[in-house]
Amino acid sequence: MPIYMTQFTYSTKSIKGMVDSPQDRRAAAQRIFAAAGGSIIEMYLCFGEYDGVVIAEFPNDAAAASALMAVGSTGAFSTFKTTVLLTMHTGVQAMEGAKEIVGEYRPPSG
To answer: What is the pTM for the complete model shown?
Structure first.
């Protein structure tokens, strides 16, 4: 299954709720991801531009987008950024494919 990394920033209201009542949000995320056919591989809180990162797998892009739109629609987050991840094996397959077709492209010339 394709693997996705979603970086997120909680809304101010969500942060207040977690400070007032500390809680592990993985189970809540897992329920909605599972409803879309996916599962969480790992979930982290972090410092920096984003408050957290979730690594998940879904059967396809539409399933991933469904889960993330459903979560996003709650207002619990102010920012989402999702990146499709490739395993190194898949990356090597892409490199091999590129090697086969690289001669088909000609850059613009002036």
So the answer is: 0.87
Residues ≥6 apart with Cβ < 8 Å to 55 = 3, 4, 5, 40, 41, 42, 43, 85
Q: Report helix angle 61-72 to 26-35, nearest 10.
A: 130
Q: 75 in the Ramachandran plot: left (φ > 0), alpha (ψ -120 to 50) or beta?
A: left
| CATH class, range 3-104 | alpha beta
> Across the strands, what pairs with 5?
55, 83
Question: Taking the domains of the chain in order of start, what are their residue ranges?
Answer: 3-104
How do residues 94-107 score in pLDDT, each as one tens digit?
Answer: 999 999 999 898 88
